[in-house]
Every structure is written in C-alpha cells, then in structure tokens.
C-alpha cells in the first residue's frame, strides 16, 4: 500500500498528523509533510505504508478536509 500526498493542496489543518505518524507538522510552511516521502512530481510526494500502519494511513486520508491524501493498494487501485 502507498500514500500519495499533494502538498500544494494541503491547507495545514493537521488532522492527518493526529491520525498517522506518517505525517508531521511543518510550522514554517503551515502545511503537513509526508515523512520519508519521495517527490513524484512537483509538490506531490509518495511513500510506501509500513506493515501494520495501513488503517492509520487510510484514516489520515479520510480526515483530510481538502482530499490532499490518496491511498492506493498494492495493485495500484485507489482505496481512499
């Protein structure tokens, strides 16, 4: 499973940070950061979800008020 995060869309509500340790606050920019994320395209980051953290990653995506977070299964299908 992997997470795709559009940092440009993020408005810094930090609800994702409360749901999953895969996100952290960047108080300088007023946005969240995807921990260990690799930049796939400008301001879009991806990371593989560690085993056992899938549910937390899904919750982080579901609580994002601007849908800046997408979750994909191992087959590449979007699940959130």
Automatic annotation (TrEMBL):
Keywords: Electron transport, Iron, Iron-sulfur, Metal-binding, Transport. The keyword Iron-sulfur applies. InterPro entries: Fe-S_cluster_ET. SUPFAM superfamilies: 4Fe-4S ferredoxins. Gene3D superfamilies: 3.30.70.20. One of its GO terms (molecular function) is iron-sulfur cluster binding. Coiled coil: none annotated. PANTHER family: FERREDOXIN (PTHR36923). This is Ferredoxin. It comes from Halorubrum aidingense JCM 13560.
């Amino acid at each position: 499973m992997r997470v795709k995060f559009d940092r440009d869309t993020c408005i810094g509500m930090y609800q994702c940070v409360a749901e999953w340790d895969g996100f952290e606050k960047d108080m300088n920019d007023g946005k969240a950061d995807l921990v260990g994320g690799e930049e796939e395209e400008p301001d879009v980051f991806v990371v593989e979800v560690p085993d056992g953290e899938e549910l937390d990653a899904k919750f982080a995506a579901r609580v994002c008020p601007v849908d800046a977070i997408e979750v994909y299964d191992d087959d590449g299908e979007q699940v959130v």
